[in-house]
Recover the amino acids of this structure.
């Protein structure tokens, strides 16, 4: 009969109950510390002002584009128009917004720039717009980063010297320099050259967001390449030999046998890399991309509410990264089954 000793001994119900209670106690102590620290700071908390930065409801004034006497209002093709008669008898029409309340009455004289009426606008606030930009940039960069990483990882283990040395050079250069420096180079150097060439050709300019996406994608691709290389090399060589013995060529064996096994093993480190990418997107504010961090900084400057807004910014990033982590865990469990 096997004798259990030390860490091998079975755990009773009391063991788990004790450590669960210890975890809850640590959470309560942490919350209490934060509560006491917030109360000790001479700061007026104004959480009630935060919703306006998520969704804005405002009144917009519509001003007269001509001057004259308000003669009538009419409806054509579902749109409302106000008719003004100028001093020389000429009648002009100006379109009104849906749901707009008219300020002057019929027969009133309206001068150029006078308020004809107001209408209500409901639109996403600064923080919600910044959150959407962060999500958009992150998702596009993840797709491009996976593409760059897989291709570079395959080139890294290739027997072709040009592909192998090129992959090594790319990986070492990108991983050996800060992301912030790379963003500056992509935007101020490569971006300036590309946009100048496009301008000379009479074409449109490339928006700053795409240079930010390219910087994040290239940076992430270098790390994904090493993750993919390690995952491929972790698969036993006998798998490749067995696939080749069945008549598959190298590319078919890699695509149908090696890569599916490798991807199951590299999903956890890939999730960590993609979570880092979401947080690294906060650096794009330096090239005038209004992502979540830059939007928060602008609101803090105008509202003078640093504590509430930066705490909220951290919570929003946590929601993004936690959701991504759950999605990758779902894919990992599905792949294992």
């Amino acid at each position: 009969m096997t004798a259990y000793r030390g860490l091998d001994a079975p755990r009773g119900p009391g063991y788990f109950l004790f450590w669960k209670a210890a975890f809850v106690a640590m959470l309560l102590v942490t919350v209490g510390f934060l509560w006491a620290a917030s109360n000790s700071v001479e700061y007026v908390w104004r959480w009630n002002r935060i919703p306006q930065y998520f969704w804005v409801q405002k009144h917009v004034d519509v001003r007269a584009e001509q001057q004259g006497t308000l003669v009538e209002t009419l409806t054509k093709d579902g749109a409302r128009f106000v008719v003004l008669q100028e001093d020389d008898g000429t009648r002009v029409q100006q379109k009104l917004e849906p749901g707009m309340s008219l300020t002057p009455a019929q027969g009133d004289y309206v001068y150029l720039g006078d308020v004809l009426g107001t209408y209500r606008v409901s639109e996403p606030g600064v923080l919600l717009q910044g959150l959407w930009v962060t999500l958009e940039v992150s998702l596009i960069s993840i797709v491009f980063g996976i593409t760059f990483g897989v291709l570079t990882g395959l080139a890294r283990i290739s027997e072709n010297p040009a592909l192998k040395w090129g992959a090594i050079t790319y990986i070492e250069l990108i991983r050996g320099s800060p992301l912030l420096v790379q963003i500056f180079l992509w935007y101020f150097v490569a971006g300036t050259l590309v946009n100048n060439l496009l301008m000379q050709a009479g074409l449109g300019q490339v928006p700053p967001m795409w240079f930010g996406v390219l910087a994040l994608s290239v940076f992430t691709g270098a790390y994904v390449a090493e993750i993919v290389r390690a995952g491929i090399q972790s698969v036993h060589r006998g798998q490749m030999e067995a696939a080749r013995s069945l008549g598959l060529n190298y590319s078919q064996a890699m695509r149908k046998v090696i890569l599916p096994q490798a991807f199951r093993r590299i999903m956890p480190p890939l999730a960590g890399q993609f979570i880092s990418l979401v947080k690294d997107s906060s650096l794009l504010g330096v090239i005038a991309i209004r992502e979540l961090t830059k939007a928060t900084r602008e609101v803090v400057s105008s509202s003078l509410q640093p504590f509430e807004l930066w705490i909220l910014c951290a919570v929003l990033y946590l929601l993004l990264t936690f959701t991504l982590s759950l999605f990758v865990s779902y894919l990992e469990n599905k792949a294992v089954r």
